[in-house]
Amino acid sequence: MKIILTEDQYNELNVKTFKEFLYKFWDSEKKRGEEPTLDDIVYQMSGVKKGSEEDNRTIRPIWYDYNGGHEKLVEKLKKEILYKELSFEGNQNLKLTFMVDDIESYDDGRWKGEVDISCVLLNGTVDGYVYNYNSDEMVMKPNMDIGDQYAELEYDTQDFEYFLKDEIQSFLDPIMERYGIPYHLEMLV
After folding, report:
1. pLDDT digits (tens, 9 = 90+) for 97-156
2. Does the pLDDT of residue 10 top 90, yes or no?
3. SS3 68
4. Residue 131 · residue 154 · CB < 8 Å
5. Class of residue 74 by CB neighbours under 10 A (exposed 0-12, middle 13-18, buried 19+)
């Protein structure tokens, strides 16, 4: 007996099989006492590029379903970081404390998944730069207050803001990887 499948039926069968495989993979991680994540191995096995449209259509919806839905993951994330003072140390002797004051989930029409995270800088220090009028050059000043660095830079703060945003993203990336939620960061200074 021959069974003839349409292309749509074949694709649906492949997605179902892949979903079952991923569920078993994540369940085995739980049995080993590990927290299931969207590891790079999932993307290597599937041949799907992380963060691509195909990822958003195929792998992430399976991940969200496995975890009880996207909204449930966002709620767990909010419980972990929303309205909490978060501190870390980074490049250029950065010591920074900030607070996540908003996490907004949205649906862009194609897929549901990305969140916007807004944070406020509370305080910190960095090896900053000040203008030395005697030598007519910028010199490094260790452990400078971040507010003082902004004042010193006056209107040329864009590079400094990019630096701070990159450092905050480096701090948030491992947290966001655990939840498997893509995000966009807004920083209020």
Report:
1. 999 999 998 765 555 678 999 999 999 999 988 888 888 888 889 999 999 998 888 878
2. no
3. coil
4. no
5. buried
* Residues 55 and 76 occupy one common structural domain: no
Burial of 60 (0-12, 13-18, 19+ CB in 10 A): buried
Are 18 and 79 contained in the same domain?
no
127 and 60, same domain (yes or no): no
Looking at the predicted structure, is the pLDDT value of residue 75 above 70? yes
What's the pTM? 0.84
Distance CA 75, CA 73 (A): 5
* Domain extent at residue 135: 70-189
Cα dihedral 92, 94, 100, 103, rounded to 10, equals: 20
Please tell me whether residues 170 and 86 are part of one structural domain. yes
Q: Hunting for tokens 């050059």 — which residue is that?
A: 137
Rounded Cα distance between 187 and 61, Å, is 28
Is residue 62 within 8 Å of 22, Cβ to Cβ? yes
Assess whether 123 and 35 both reside in one domain.
no
Whether residues 14 and 102 fall in one domain = no
For residue 58, give the nearest of 109, 4, 108, 113 by alpha carbon: 113
Alpha-carbon gap, residue 128 to 92, rounded angstroms? 8
Distance separating alpha carbons of residues 63 and 105, to the nearest angstrom: 16
* Domain stop point among 66, 82, 117: 66
